[in-house]
Amino acid sequence: MPMSAEFLWYIPNQARPGHRGEPVTDDHNSVDTLTTHAKALEQHGWTGALIGTGWGRPDTFTVATALAARTTTFEPLIAVRPGYWRPAHFASAAASLDHLTGGRVRVNIVSGKDDLAAYGEAEEDQAGRYARTREFMQVVRRLWTEENVTHRGTHYRVTDSTVEPRIAARPGRPHPLLYFGGASPAAERVAAAEADVQLFWGEPLAGVGERIDRLRVLSDELGRAHPPLRFGLRITTFVRDTTEQAWADAEAKVAAMAAAAGAAPRRHTAVGQQRLLDLAARGDVLDDNLYTAPGRVGGGGAATTWLVGSAEDVAKSLRRYQDLGITHFVLSDTPYLREIRRQGTRLLPLLRG
Fold first, then answer.
1. Could you give phi then psi for residue 280, rounded to 5 degrees?
2. Which of 71, 148, 70, 61 shows the shortest CA–CA distance to 97?
3. Cα separations (Å) of 169 from 104, 140, 163, 177, 349?
4. Which residue blocks in the chain are alpha helix, DSSP H?
5. C-alpha closest to that of 5 among 296, 344, 330
6. Is the CB of residue 149 less than 8 Å from the CB of residue 76?
7. Residue 330 φ then ψ, to 5°
8. Could you report the per-residue pLDDT of 231-262, keeping only the tens digit for each?
9. Which residues 6+ apart lie within 8 Å of 260 measured at CB?
10. Contact 140, 176 (CB under 8 A)
11. Is residue 236 a contact partner of residue 318, using CB atoms and an 8 Å limit?
12. How remote is the C-alpha of 227 from its chain's centroid?
């Protein structure tokens, strides 16, 4: 692989059991169960895991803090929403956790629609959401890298603000990385100007390559003031011992999803999600092994498209994404714990070897 890459997983952060085929158990979201996942990630070579966010789910920062306290190398990628957090409050909380963990905090900024009214915020149109997100990222970054910050913006204001403890700069990491996703023109402008890592869903190689090129050009046009934007991929990796077994199991799982759905899936309005759903019209399998059928029967987000095959097949496909410039991978499949171990044992050595 031409550049070093980082490989993270996904930890379900759900009040209700059974997420994407995860076994239903009473303790699915207990600290002991989630710690078992985090420790398995450490033991099987993963850098850390994305922990999702949204109103109606357990508070992501609280979960990340609990898991960080019970592990030694696990790095939580903490998904947060502007609006739920104010920038100075979040910058302080993240600086504290980063200090206590020796620099293990990563942050995923989420701008998609949420039940903002439930926690006292007003819904905004797309332009307003992304303007607020950009300002949130600007203030957080300044609070992590400057002292006595004064900001007078459209959405946020702070006066002579300094967070304590200070973020300890580390090689290649002046502060926790800010991951960001979104495919609309408004989202891409935020990523090009303010994010550290732009996350893509599992699109075909050509589409990802086009977006990387566009974001690099846009970064120059906007006069990006930060180190060059990096790129990540969030996708389901469906790995079995052989190619034939992987496809048989994948098709059987999609058939079961279709039977359980009983109706056409809800069409999402987010631009990135709609791009994934539209891929199915081009065929069930794109590139070598990008399976689009899950999106037709209810798969959403990272479960809309799957990379299917043996560990060698999937590693080859991931290396092709890295050839385009992807350096941060967030992978997953269910059952989560089984796949942490299976893919950590069979897939990661091929990617790192």
1. -60, -30
2. 61
3. 12, 15, 14, 11, 30
4. 31-43, 60-69, 87-100, 126-145, 185-194, 205-221, 243-261, 271-279, 293-296, 311-324, 336-346, 348-352
5. 330
6. no
7. -120, 105
8. 999 999 999 999 999 999 999 999 998 888 76
9. 298
10. no
11. no
12. 20
Structure tokens at 102: 């020796």
| Phi, psi of 161, rounded to the nearest 5 degrees | -100, 130
Residue type present at position 48: G
Residue type, 101: T
| Beta pairing partners, 237 | 307
> Is 306:291 a contact under the CB 8 Å cutoff?
yes
Among candidate residues 246, 259, 269, 252, the one with its CA nearest the CA of residue 297: 259
Q: How far apart are CA 63 and CA 82, in angstroms?
A: 18
335 upstream amide cis, omega within 30 of 0: yes
Q: Which residues contact 29 (CB under 8 A, 6 or more apart)?
A: 12, 13, 14, 15, 17, 58
Highest mean pLDDT: which range of 8-17, 118-127, 200-209? 200-209
Query: What pLDDT band is residue 271 in, cutting at 50, 70 and 90?
Result: confident
Indicate the angle between helix axes 185-194 and 126-145, nearest 10 degrees. Answer: 10
